[in-house]
Amino acid sequence: MKRNSLSILLLLSFMFINAQDAFEIKGFCISAPSSDKVEEFVDFIKNELAPNGINTLVLRVDYNYAYESRPELRGENPLSKIQVKQMVNVCKELNINIIPQVNLLGHQSWHSEHTKLLQVYPEFDETPHIALPENYVWPNDDGLYCKSYCPLHPNVHEVVFDLMDEILDVFEANAFHAGMDEVFYLADDNCPRCKGLDPAALFAGELVKINNHLASRDARLWIWGDRLIDGAVTGIGMWEASMNNTARAIDMIPKSVVICDWHYEKAYPTAAYFAIKGFDVITCPWRKPEVAIAQVKMMHNFKMNSTPEMAKHYLGMMQTYWSSTTNFIEEQKKSAENQTNSAECFKAMLNTMKTLESLKN
């Protein structure tokens, strides 16, 4: 009798899971538009994202905003508050949750140029002894991909938290994406504060500080997940996973953090790892339709074949795009025969989700 009762309860639980939307998050991640392209971007939200069921927009803002608290960190031709409100309001009307992103910790330079934070506050640089080359190439002797700020600098969080607070306010956001991907410079031997420290503890400590600040604002932290995957154990390597000893941080950080699990060449099943660890996870493709299709099927399979305790962690999918809306629209005009582009990948992700969701009806 007890066994039969248990079976009925399990059956009812799985029926409940199947009745739910298999993909709670249907996301799109793209850079914020330049100030002269806001109207085009609003049209893109109305005509492309909303009709395709996108309900979450991660918008990479960084220094493309006219900060009032830190005007020295404004980029060139930044978005005004009025322009941000245009985007916020259209997303409200269309039931799209907009989540702003500012890259924290890593990605403080690109090729041969520092981002605004290190331009204005060079003392925050984790590796000031490594100069940015006039002509950037990879690989290079310094292992330079992009710079990091020092997480133990006594003044860095005063600045960073000002940016976060202002971005949360202007976007009326309930979540904030801090990036934190591809952090290659951490616990550098030349840093007077970080030398000799555990990279995992440093990474976790910075994440906890950011998370706690957001929690005080009733906002949830999102990050990319690569630094929490052991690149050696999994064989995934240094880009989509960590080879610099940050992976153990996964056991040192709050379970409330949302992990955006990006893999672009193959549908690695690491979403299950994050779910087992107790994290909500979103799988993220980029430009290969066949990878996106495999990832959607994998996430659907994980959710449909998990206990309710595990299934709740598989939130869904998010297409990533690493250029402008203008370029994405241009990609859409290309022939479908050109299979390696983000527009085709986006289409494949959406179609596969729709097909799988239709099976339950």
Blueprint of the fold:
Elements lengths: L1 H18 L5 E7 L6 H12 L6 E5 L20 H13 L3 E8 L4 E2 L2 E2 L1 H5 L35 H16 L3 E5 L19 H17 L4 E5 L6 H4 L23 E5 L7 H7 L3 E5 L4 H16 L3 H4 L2 E7 L4 H9 L8 H17 L3
Parallel strand pairs: 1-2, 1-10, 2-3, 3-6, 6-7, 7-8, 8-9, 9-10
Antiparallel strand pairs: 4-5
Helix pairs in contact: 2-3, 9-12
Please characterize this protein's 3D structure:
- By secondary structure, the chain is α/β, with parallel strands linked by helices.
- It has one domain (25-358): Glycosidases (TIM Barrel), CATH 3.20.20.80.
- Helices cover 38% and strands 14% of the residues.
- The chain contains twelve helices and ten strands.
- The protein has an eight-stranded parallel barrel with strand order 1-2-3-6-7-8-9-10, surrounded by six helices. It has a two-stranded antiparallel ribbon with strand order 4-5.
- Helix 3 (81-93) links the parallel strand 2 (56-60) and strand 3 (97-104).
- Helix 2 (38-49) packs parallel to helix 3.
- The protein is globular, with a radius of gyration of 21 Å.
- The model is unreliable at 5-19 (pLDDT under 50).
- This is Family 20 glycosylhydrolase.
- Pfam families: Glyco_hydro_20 (PF00728).
- Residues 78-324 form the Glycoside hydrolase family 20 catalytic domain.
